[in-house]
């Protein structure tokens, strides 16, 4: 059996041995001296990568009414941050080579905080400008974190990716479920409900600050990775990331509106979204661990995508008295689809340099593709005046994700070359 077709665990063991030998030759500094502090920092950073997105959808009707936004502008507001995730993701490796990944994460956390304040305090112009800045900030940080996980937690890559994804889902759930009650608490002021999420961003920046002074071995030397755009496996990982993300951002951006259209209040719809996201905590941790027990990840990808589609169709068409069951099913599926997408970036990469660049490609191109989903839902809703027809969007995206995932889930490495800059 050749190297390219060995099971994932054996490949990882060979990779770890090779990286260890390479570190001896280069006399690189050892792994970060306080991994618990890095882990805490990663969790707090991940908590901030979804509130700017999931906090808007439960308040979308109030925001539109307050600012006089048309249906087209409201649709753009759900699409713009996702589009920025993709458009700005490719800048992450460039910034990391110039300033170091840790410094970039710290600086972009502060930029994220600025975007949150801008969108909640300066009317329509601030709303769109702040959403753009927040989306760009999340896109840059999201690219860098898988490479950091690969570098400093190589032996626990699957489990650590699950922990990171759990934190990300928890942040999304908290924002989806509490933004409307916070707005009511502050006197029915949606601006304060949205602006509240600056506080977790500043706390994360404070706890991430010690990482700027740490030496992190492999990232002290800048590498350029070539050949990703010519590699079929890299494109399969990218398409899977983009298509499953498209479904996720349809849920973040439109599920509360869909449920409100079916008769729920804004608070009830926000809680349903929050509950679905909370369930993702379970599958986001379990799915990568289970997926790395077998020879590859293909079966796991099919299972979680079928769960996701079942939950989506249930929320869209099934009677509302069974809504929470469908929301739970949706959460189990989407927690697994996203955590597996991140895990594939790590497992399909030979080292942290390749992981950082594959992360940039998968999230840059993938999120740009993902933005089409929320935009399409808005268009179809405007054309038809209802929600029933968007089931076709779910089906097309879901089947595409399964096809891409069957390729991305094979136990192979992307074929690239890596050289020092």
TrEMBL record:
Gene3D superfamilies: MFS general substrate transporter like domains (1.20.1250.20)
Keyword Cytoplasm among record annotations: no
UniProt entry keywords in alphabetical sequence: Membrane, Transmembrane, Transmembrane helix
InterPro entries the record matches: CynX-like, MFS, MFS_Cyanate_Porter, MFS_trans_sf
The protein's name: MFS transporter
Annotated GO MF terms: transmembrane transporter activity
SUPFAM superfamilies reported in the protein's UniProt record: MFS general substrate transporter
GO cellular component: membrane
Originating organism: Pseudomonas aylmerensis
